[in-house]
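Recall from the previous lesson that a structure prediction takes nothing but the amino acid sequence as input. Here we apply that procedure to tRNA1(Val) (adenine(37)-N6)-methyltransferase from Flavobacterium palustre. The sequence below is the only information supplied.
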Amino acid sequence: MKVGTDGVLLGSWTPINHNPFSILDIGAGTGIIALMLAQRSHAEQIDALEIDEDAYEQAVENFENSPWGDRLFCFHAGLDEFVEEPEDEYDLIVSNPPFYAEDYKSNSEQRDLARFQDAMPFEELIEAAALLLSENGIFSVIIPHKEEENFLALANEFELYPIKITRVKGTPTSEIKRSLLAFTRNEVSTIEIDELVIETARHQYTAEYIELTKDFYLKM
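The prediction returns the following tokens.
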């Protein structure tokens, strides 16, 4: 499976200045975000959760072939199963949730339906984060920008408060496409808010994007 920009953004942007000991990646796909966080942090325990069998198998293979295999573990389970018997709290919870965007339409009805059914309800994700996050932990996500207001309101209901928001545009003239959001259990007086532009032209990456992601690309 190809690596998507959303995963690269979340993996490189997610705050780790609180030195997390344990990390959980919800809906890990092929494990890219968990691997990036293994590269960036000293976390001893990095758990990933993936329900799709093919993606799960690929994540396990990727973990085993990485230099951080002893710190990475993937569960083949859905979020609902995982939260039924929570054994651990996590200092960092990340998710690039499978979402269903109305503007996403393929030429296959079956594929659209699969995409819709795979979408993770934000409420379920936020509720799980509220349950599994350690007292001083951070919960970090990337979502469609048009869902930002709704997501912030839902998080607030579960007493998760934003500390950092970055809104992402493909080019300087395009509209904001994604929102990167980081939450804690403690309300802060000032939220760090900024904007990130990925490219100035096709494959002409901005200095900000290069600075953020350069440690993860072989050629940048």
